[in-house]
């Protein structure tokens, strides 16, 4: 199976945890799965910006990226990619670290200002140097897979003019999963699923069908960073990928056994 794994920056800070995830990814590759990794780094980017006096601005879970934030993202995401690739190699994974624009893997354009409902009022929001993916070319990924490598991709893209753009890692993972016709996209973060009430662990949803996900999204059940994650999941399922899964990278062995147990939350058509 073609497996696309999106790793949240929240589970990549500790070397021991990166190594543990690497061992689980190695187990998946040994089972014959072709694995593609996309990593985020929102937490690390926010921490770095606060430390260096760069304002951290977000609207409905989406980051506003000005020039200073973009330069910070280049540094932070590059550092995460380097550390993650090194940990994976130490765990036995033949990892290759690249960006989402390498080899023309993705094409993107700067997102136009959006009209959003904020506290009951329509406001126009310019997200700055944030990109929308307009095309995907999987030749580089296919070549790396054929040679036995696991691509490790940061979520920096580029415009046709060569401008680097910050793209939500969930969006990058979704577009690549669709282009590759992956069997499943697995989102690995610090939460073990989707909750009806984020403050109540007993409200985790083991399985969720597409129509149920649409209804809950419209009802406003999902908040903050879960909103773009669920939006991308819905689009993924609508376009033909079989399943989307959210699980915790902090739970020992959850990733290694993601295909054989009810780990986290599984969204399906």
- Report the helical percentage: 25-40%
Enumerate the spans where pLDDT stays under 50 for 5 or more consecutive residues: none
Mean pLDDT across the residues is 93
Strand order of the biggest β-sheet = 5-10-2-1-13-15-16-14
Strand-residue proportion: 25-35%
Query: What structural class do the secondary elements suggest?
Result: alpha/beta
How many H/I helices? Answer: 7
**Kindly, what is the distance between the CA atoms of the first and last residues, rounded to a whole number of angstroms?**
18 Å
Number of strands: 16
What best-fitting shape do the alpha-carbon axes yield? globular
Major sheet, described briefly? Answer: 8 strands, mixed
H/E element sequence: EHEHEEHEEEEEHEEEHEEHHEE
Rounded to an integer, what's the Rg over CA atoms?
A: 18 Å
Q: Any key phrases for this structure?
A:
two-stranded antiparallel sheet, 8-stranded mixed β-sheet, 16 strands, globular, 269 residues, alpha/beta
């Amino acid at each position: 199976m073609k497996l696309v794994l999106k790793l949240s920056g929240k589970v990549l800070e500790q070397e021991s945890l990166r190594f543990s995830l690497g061992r689980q990814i190695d187990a998946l590759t040994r089972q014959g799965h072709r694995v593609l990794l996309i990593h985020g780094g929102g937490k690390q980017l926010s921490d770095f910006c606060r430390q260096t006096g760069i304002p951290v601005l977000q609207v409905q879970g989406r980051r506003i990226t000005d020039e200073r934030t973009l330069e910070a993202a280049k540094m932070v995401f590059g550092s995460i990619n380097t550390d993650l690739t090194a940990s994976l190699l130490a765990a036995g994974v033949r990892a290759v670290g690249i960006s989402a624009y390498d080899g023309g893997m993705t094409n993107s354009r700067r997102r136009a200002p959006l009209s959003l409902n904020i506290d009951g009022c329509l406001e126009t929001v310019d997200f700055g140097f944030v990109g929308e993916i307009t095309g995907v070319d999987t030749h580089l990924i296919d070549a790396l897979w054929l040679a036995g490598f696991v691509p490790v991709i940061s979520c920096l893209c580029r415009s046709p003019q060569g401008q680097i753009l910050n793209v939500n890692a969930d969006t990058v993972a979704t577009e690549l999963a669709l282009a590759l016709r992956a069997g499943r996209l697995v989102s690995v973060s610090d939460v073990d699923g989707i909750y009806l009430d984020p403050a109540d662990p007993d409200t985790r949803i083991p399985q969720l069908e597409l129509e149920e996900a649409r209804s809950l999204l419209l009802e406003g059940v999902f908040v903050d960073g879960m909103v773009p994650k669920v939006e991308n999941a819905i689009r993924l399922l609508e376009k033909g990928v079989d399943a989307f899964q959210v699980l915790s990278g902090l739970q020992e062995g959850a990733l290694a056994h993601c295909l054989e147990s009810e780990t986290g939350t599984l969204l399906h058509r």
